[in-house]
Amino acid sequence: MNEIVDGFIQAVELIVSLDPEVLEITARSLLISLAATGIAALIAIPIGGYIHFREFGGKRGLVTIIQTLYALPTVIAGLFVFLLLSRVGPLGFLGLLFTPWGMVIGQTVLVIPLLVGMTLIALSGVKKTIQDEVISLGATSSQTIWTIVKEARFAILGGVILGFGRAISEVGAAMIIGGNIRGYTRVLTTAIALETSMGNIAFSIALGIILLAIALLVTTALFLVQER
Amino acid sequence: MIEFSHVSKSFGEKEVLNDLTFRIEKGEIFTFIGPSGTGKTTILRLINVLELPTSGSILIERKDTRVSERDKVALRRRMSVVFQKPAALRGSVFQNVALGLKFRNTPSNEIRHLVTEALNLVGLEGYEERKATTLSGGELQRVAIARALVTKPEILLLDEPTANLDPASTERIESLILSLSERFGTTIILSTHDMVQGQRLATRIAVILNRTLGQVGDSHQIFYQPRNREVARMVGVENIFDGTVVSNDEGLAIIDVKGTPIVASCPYSAGSPVTVYMRPEDIIFFVEKDGKSSARNELPGKITRVTPMGPNMKVRMDAGISLVAVITRRSYDELGLSKGISVYASFKATAIHVVKSDE
């Protein structure tokens, strides 16, 4: 019991004293997950828009697959990207395995289905009358899509925030693709996993508190956006 | 300018419009009247190329509306629609009104000027920065009208434009419609269930009944010369009787309606089966036999029912046939009328519209 209480006290000390390693890991986590979410958004929102506005065969099936992939296990995404980036994989020549950029790719793959799904939900939340209004005002197809996406911007932003939450809290892909290399690919989640197994409880708790704080921030942001 | 020929429209199994053929001329104020849910909105959506006909064709300036997406946009950019329940996009009133101009890539300094002008036209000066989603129904309606006008359309489509407005705003919108038509020659196509509004505004009126065209004509034709029973009922012609022409003396006929002779002007010869139509406003009452009036008809009878209607009274009387009259409350009071009283109903031979029945 004492050990845990001591761990907490040391953890707070680590945070308050701005321990360089804690800061570095936190910054890296944020950067990697922000980059992954940003890239995923750039890919997923247009895909969501395309699926929403176009009629094509197998649309329902595709949407079902996307919804299934919301729950894509992080280790599976990790394994998939690992195989892609490994020396013998099709993208092995890029040399991205065990690099931060490799981790960004892994998290991007993880977040895209969720973000496509959230975009679809956001767009179908825009009333049909709005779309009629826009078309009848003389919008071309691309102007219509852009205007409706803008109309759904807060709901889509909510999806982006959720995606970021998934990216920063996942451990599987980060571990498999990044390899948890100290000072290079170690992020909050992989560090917690390692330090805990090494009995370095105080360090783990400090990182855990930070991760929770980020999660709280994300949820608050989501709440504020959905209030709009 | 707009030509419907044999246009039908179905949504799935449900037929909404059946075999409509008519023309709308450039510069007209053309009004569709009819009960709710009879397809008026669908007609406007067809003209705006938001829908395509299931069968038949629609030509706009001789161009069919079944064209590529690109050409549809070009057609739509010549017109504007004010929907019955306009939708506000997120953002300010300015952004909402500017939308159509943005789509047309109008330079932004010009947009500012045009939006201000359009807002002034609908009496919303200074509303630019208000949030559009928080406006009242009446304000939103006017924003929608400004949004439609700002692109200076050749054709303006208005779906029940004053259904949600108070009388003062309604008057304002109606005079705006008339002045647009006069100043810019805008072709205005509107739908309404308000008969009187149709009469006030329209160059021509189309009555839509049972998913099809009941009658097209100017307001006099529609209100005084209905083509059939359904149209007559729709436009408030409450006296409708079947009868037979007994004699015809140079256009002045005597028609027998269940034993009651009615004098009416019509070209039909003796023996023709006819239906006679008369508006309730065209009947006046006398307590004693008048004889001096130029009205050819003077039927004695008893008042059976009286219903107040604002400044007017609806009076039913039994004169062998059951007549419905609408007179002002003032004349009702001055004549000392009431239920059960004996009166003479007087109406002119020219007030009666006679249609030959189909054999």
Output the number of helix runs of chain B. Answer: 10
How many helix segments of chain A? 11
Terminal CA distance of chain A reads 45 Å
Question: Roughly what percent helix of chain A?
Answer: over 70%
Rounded Rg of chain A: 20 Å
Mean pLDDT across the residues of chain B is 91
Walk me through what this model shows.
The complex is a heterodimer of chains A (228) and B (359). By secondary structure, chain A is mainly alpha-helical. Chain A contains 11 helices and no strands. In chain A, α1 crosses α11, α2 crosses α5 and α5 packs antiparallel against α9. Chain B is an alpha+beta fold and 359 residues long. Helix content of chain B is 27%, strand content 37%. In chain B, the strands form 4 sheets. Chain B has a 6-stranded mixed sheet with strand order 6-7-8-3-9-10, with helices on both faces. Chain B has a 5-stranded antiparallel sheet with strand order 13-12-11-14-20, with no helix packed on it. In chain B, strands 15-19-16-17-18 form a 5-stranded antiparallel sheet. In chain B, β4 and β5 form a beta hairpin. The radius of gyration of chain B is 25 Å and the shape is elongated. At the A-B interface, α6 and α7 of A face α2 and α3 of B.
